[in-house]
Amino acid sequence: MNAFIPVILSGGAGTRLWPVSREALPKPFIKLPDGESLLNKTLLRAAALPGVTEVLTVTNRDHYFLTRDEYELCTPPQGLPPLSYLLEPFGRNTAPAIAAAALLVAERFGADAVLLVLPADHLIGDQAGFATAVASARQLATEGWLATFGIQPTAPETGFGYIEAGEKVGAGNTVARFVEKPTREKAAEYLAAGNFTWNSGMFCFTAGALLDALRSHAPTLLGAVEATLAATDFTNPPPVLAAEAFKQVPDISIDYAVMEKAAMNARVAVVPAAFDWSDIGSWNALAELTAADGSGNRIVGEAVLVDAANCYVQGGDRVVAAVGVDNLLIIDTADALLVADRSRAQDVKAVVQQLKLTAHDSVRHHRTAHRPWGTYTVLEEGERFKIKRIVVKPGASLSLQMHHHRSEHWVVVSGMAKVVNGEREIFIRTDQSTYIPAGTQHRLSNPGVIDCVMIEVQTGDYLGEDDIVRLEDKYGR
After folding, report:
1. Are 100 and 229 in contact (CB under 8 A)?
2. What is the pLDDT of residue 266?
3. Domain for residue 362, yes or no?
4. Residue 61 in contact with residue 237, Cβ under 8 Å?
5. How far is Cα 314 from Cα 303, in angstroms, rounded to an integer?
């Protein structure tokens, strides 16, 4: 039987979900009201399908450790299939990512291996319906079709692309054409016609069929991806695509590069998706996951609403209060607050665009930053000082490093730390501390079985994160 490889594409910044989704912690990692991330749900959904050989995740190099940590939270009863990764040095859209996955899978499992391409930021609740649709798509894929999944429209939505279904084939239809995001009038026409579905962005095909389509419709792209793989070091997994070669790869979606062109040759099929589906494309979509109270308000976190209706409020570490308002989005994080009319939810991305013009740090980072070894949170900073709360996971360690411009004072408040401080190696327990002068090599490791939590006080003329000289690093940074 053909190998069956779900390919999870985990990328994009999710700008419509700012300030929770940011470049360093994008939409797939957002925790939903049930405590799970979209990425975890995607992995569990793929792993539960019958006959899975392996799950391949294509993601940014900077998100590898965060992705691995998220996957470690997944504990399905049947266990997980083997997991593998292909890391991008930077984003190049979906066509290069899928092409690289297809080339890798073809080499490892053969050209007849079936790929199921799944974006990591979709939400699907009906696993049985999903599995039925996938089985239909796998059958079409083994017959040489490039299969996609069409979502039955429920409204004249202008934020999705559309697929026009043609003649019947297997459990689906041929694709007559792909249509880009339409006007509301056109969307209403498609809804009334009855043979149009939303383009889900999920695909199923054999590695060989996809590579043949790339050779026919995007040979330059395929050649550039092949050159990138040839220049990539696969001896130290997970492999990171060679950056200089990857720069030469066109930045284009799989729809533009292949699917729209292949549809003209009647080799693309659409399988109707008889399951619930959301791409969580706005705060309104996320709000629907929380039950409304009698006034239509949906609240996550601690909030006090007086004479308010139809609002979605997501709080963080403080109380959010609103009086006499209607139809608002109020999203509060440690360093950014969003207030928007719910009818303008799609326009949140314009805020991110304006922040990018000033290179504002809230576009990329949260106040709490994730690292392979744990997290750090900036508690306070001012002229010549910065205070952080640092959490180091059991068995993890920071790099052996030094700083030119700052000194650091470490105070352990929970757990235990093993510290290299210059020529000394010492153990620091709760309520104990050490001082590290500028220019001194140092490292902190957690030898215990619980998190090591410490407060770091930095002082100096320059406190930027780039004042780090790494001498050794177990994470290869």
Report:
1. yes
2. 75
3. no
4. no
5. 8
CATH of the domain at 443: 2.60.120.10
Domain CATH for 175: 3.90.550.10
Q: How far apart are CA 436 and CA 413, in angstroms?
A: 17
Q: What secondary structure letter does DSSP report for 295?
A: T
Residues 58 and 107 in one domain: yes
Read off the tokens for 458: 């930095």
- Whether 175 is in a domain gets the answer yes
- Tell whether 230 and 267 lie within a shared domain: yes
Burial string for 116-137 (b: 16+ CB within 10 Å, else e) reads bbbbbbbbbeeeeebebbbebb
Residue corresponding to tokens 């002082």: 459
Residue with tokens 């997994």: 237
- In angstroms, the CA 160 to CA 201 distance is 10
Contact 122, 198 (CB under 8 A): no
| Residue type, position 137, single letter | A
Q: Could you tell me which of 128, 192, 136 has the C-alpha nearest to residue 169?
A: 136
Sign of the dihedral defined by the CA atoms of residues 226, 232, 235, 239, in that order: negative
Q: DSSP of 262-274, one letter per residue? A: HHHTT-EEEEEE-
Which 3 state secondary structure label does DSSP give 433?
strand
E strand spans, 192-278: 196-206, 268-273
CA pair distance 294, 214, nearest whole angstrom? 53
Q: Residue 312 in contact with residue 330, Cβ under 8 Å?
A: yes
Q: What is the pLDDT of residue 332?
A: 96
Q: Per-10-residue mean pLDDT for the chain, 477 residues long?
A: 94 88 92 92 96 97 93 85 96 96 98 98 95 97 96 87 92 92 88 91 97 96 98 94 97 94 88 92 94 96 96 94 98 95 94 94 89 93 95 96 96 97 96 96 96 97 90 85
Structure pTM?
A: 0.90
CA distance 43 to 85: 13
The string of DSSP codes covering 299-348 is EESSEEEES-BS-EEE--SS-EEEES-BSEEEEE-SS-EEEEEGGGGGGH
Per-residue pLDDT at 365: 87
The answer to whether the Cα torsion of 290, 294, 297, 301 is positive or negative is: negative
**Amino acid in the structure at residue 73:** L
Residues in the chain: 477
